[in-house]
Amino acid sequence: MNIWPAIRIGLLDMRGDLRRFLLLVVCLAVGTALIAGVNSVGASITSAIEEGAAELMGGDIEISRADRLATAEELASLSELGRTVLVIDTNLRAESFTSEAFADVSVVGPSYPCLARW
Fold first, then answer.
1. Distance of alpha carbon 108 from alpha carbon 90, whole angstroms
2. Are 94 and 103 in contact (CB under 8 A)?
3. Cβ atoms of residues 92 and 103 within 8 Å
4. Cα angle at 32 between 28 and 38, to 5 degrees?
5. How far apart are CA 26 and CA 39, in angstroms?
6. pLDDT digits (tens, 9 = 90+) for 59-107
7. Which chain regions cross the lipid bilayer (predicted)?
8. I need a labelling partner for 45 at 20 to 30 A (CA). Which of 8, 11, 55, 89 fits?
9. Pairwise CA distance, residues 35 & 105, whole Å
10. Can you give the pLDDT at residue 118?
């Protein structure tokens, strides 16, 4: 079986569409490069946040519960470890007459952040 006639017919058929094919290849290359760039930037931001979490968040340890607030006994035992701050986070849907959006709301205690002042 000779494959050259099939290649010849394929090239003749693609003759007018070669520019479109090259444009498709260029678009795929640019799209792949953009996705790789976004992933790289996201990874570097995540790394920076993980390395500087104590400075950014203002403490060394974070303890959280999603189901309820801490009891008085739990807060007393945590206070024995050092200075503590109560932080309450919630998410909600904000709505106006023309649009709506989801928002995260955080309320912090008066001793936030827990960083030592020099």
1. 12
2. yes
3. yes
4. 145
5. 20
6. 667 777 778 888 889 888 888 887 787 888 888 898 989 999 998 888 8
7. 21-38
8. 89
9. 31
10. 42
φ, ψ for residue 2, nearest 5 deg? -95, 125
Query: Where are the domains positioned within the chain?
Result: 1-51, 58-118
- E strands of 1-118, at which residues? 87-95, 100-108
Could you give the 3-state DSSP secondary structure of residue 16? helix
Coil vs helix vs strand at 92: strand
- Return the structure tokens found at 13: 């058929």
Name the strand (E) or helix (H) holding 13: helix 4-14
Query: How far is residue 10's CA from residue 72's CA, in Å, rounded to a whole number?
Result: 78
Q: Which two tokens stand for residue 12?
A: 């003749």
Q: How many C-alpha atoms does 102 have within 13 Å on its Cβ side?
A: 2
SS3 95: strand
Host H or E run for residue 24: helix 18-51
The β-bridge partners of 70 are: none
